[in-house]
């Protein structure tokens, strides 16, 4: 029986059932589904992305869901997709039906390419997600290594190199640094390994930094930020640890050191300092999760020095509409 597809209102009565299917679908040991409050905020339109969530119903109940995110300030030829199906409802074409519907959303918005992720366990050559996407014409553009750091864990000593200082904050970025910090955030795509899809740098300015901070508060997240400043006074690197409230998971988000300041051990210093600065937030947590392009040898070496070990692969898949 073909599923009925409709648009989900994140504040409407279907959200709880949709979210329960989402959590059930991400049930592997390396999966880290967002909390409900985080997911609601993630589905809210803003000045940078339009989001459309779809719900699939069969026999009167939710069996699958999906999301299309359409960037508004950068990469405006792309649509970022996610599709999930309840484990008891797989291999019944619900995923294909949802993907077709999300593709229509992207096409109607003038997008040209689809971008979606699929994960598989370490040691596996493939997975149902990879086979599903490949059968629908998607190709792997980049493979990321997924690593975790089991907690509690004492980070290694990593003093900052001469000529640099580290600064840390939670909540709002200090006003005197916000423009420079936004520019650092903007440069992540072009300064990190990427595939052939031709991703543009994301649009970042001070207003977007403040928007992200407001979203973190609405999502009940705490962010531990550490930046490296050169003696010239400029910010030359940063790292982010994200802590959801009421969740044992921790997420190592962006880490970037500008090319002209690499080779001084700043990546390790930044990450180690972030763990030490957030010792109170790490207390009682289960693990820290992070992703890196499998080709990013220097950052992988830093993560391994910190004690991370690989648990899965994540493929970034693309297809023209």
Characterization of this structure:
The chain is built from ten helices and twelve strands. The protein has a twelve-stranded mixed sheet with strand order 1-2-3-4-5-12-6-11-10-9-8-7, with helices on both faces. The chain has 321 residues and is α+β, with helices and mostly antiparallel strands. It has two domains: 4-111, Aminopeptidase, CATH 3.40.630.30; 150-313, Gcn5-related N-acetyltransferase (GNAT) (Aminopeptidase, 3-Layer(aba) Sandwich). It is globular, with a radius of gyration of 20 Å. The mean pLDDT is 95.
Q: Strands across the major sheet, in which order?
A: 1-2-3-4-5-12-6-11-10-9-8-7
Helix content: 25-40%
At the first level of CATH, the class of the largest domain is: Alpha Beta
Principal-axis shape: globular
One letter per element, helices H and strands E, the order comes to: EHHEEEHEHEEHHHEEEHHEHE
Number of domains: 2
Mean pLDDT: 95
The CATH topology assignment of the largest domain is: Aminopeptidase
Number of helices: 10
In terms of DSSP E residues, the strand content is 25-35%
């Amino acid at each position: 029986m073909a599923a009925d597809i409709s648009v989900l209102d994140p504040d409407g009565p279907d959200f709880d059932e949709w979210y329960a299917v989402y959590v059930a679908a991400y049930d592997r040991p390396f999966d880290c589904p967002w909390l409900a409050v985080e997911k609601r905020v993630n589905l809210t339109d803003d000045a940078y992305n339009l989001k459309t969530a779809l719900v699939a119903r069969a026999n009167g109940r939710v069996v699958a869901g999906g999301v299309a995110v359409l960037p508004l300030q950068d990469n405006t030829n792309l649509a970022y997709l996610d599709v999930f199906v309840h484990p008891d409802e797989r291999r019944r074409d619900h995923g294909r039906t949802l993907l077709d519907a999300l593709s229509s959303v992207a096409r109607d918005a003038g997008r040209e390419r689809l971008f979606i992720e699929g994960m598989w366990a370490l040691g596996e050559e493939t997975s149902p997600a990879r086979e599903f996407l490949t059968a629908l014409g998607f190709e792997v553009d980049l493979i990321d290594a997924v690593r975790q750091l089991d907690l509690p864990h004492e980070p290694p000593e990593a003093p900052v190199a001469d000529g640099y200082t580290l600064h840390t904050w939670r909540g709002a970025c200090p006003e005197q640094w916000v423009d420079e910090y936004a520019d650092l955030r903007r440069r992540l795509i072009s300064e990190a390994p990427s595939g052939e899809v031709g991703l543009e740098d994301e649009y970042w300015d001070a207003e977007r930094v403040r928007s992200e901070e407001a979203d973190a508060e609405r999502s009940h997240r705490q962010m531990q930020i550490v930046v490296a400043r050169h003696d010239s006074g400029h910010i030359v690197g940063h790292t982010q640890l994200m802590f959801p409230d009421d969740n044992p998971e921790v997420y190592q988000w962006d880490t970037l050191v500008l090319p002209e300041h690499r080779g001084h051990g700043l990546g390790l210093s930044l990450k180690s300092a972030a763990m030490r600065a957030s010792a109170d937030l790490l207390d009682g947590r289960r693990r820290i999760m992070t992703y890196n392009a499998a080709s990013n040898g220097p950052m992988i070496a830093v993560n391994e020095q910190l004690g991370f070990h690989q648990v899965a692969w994540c493929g970034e898949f693309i297809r023209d509409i």
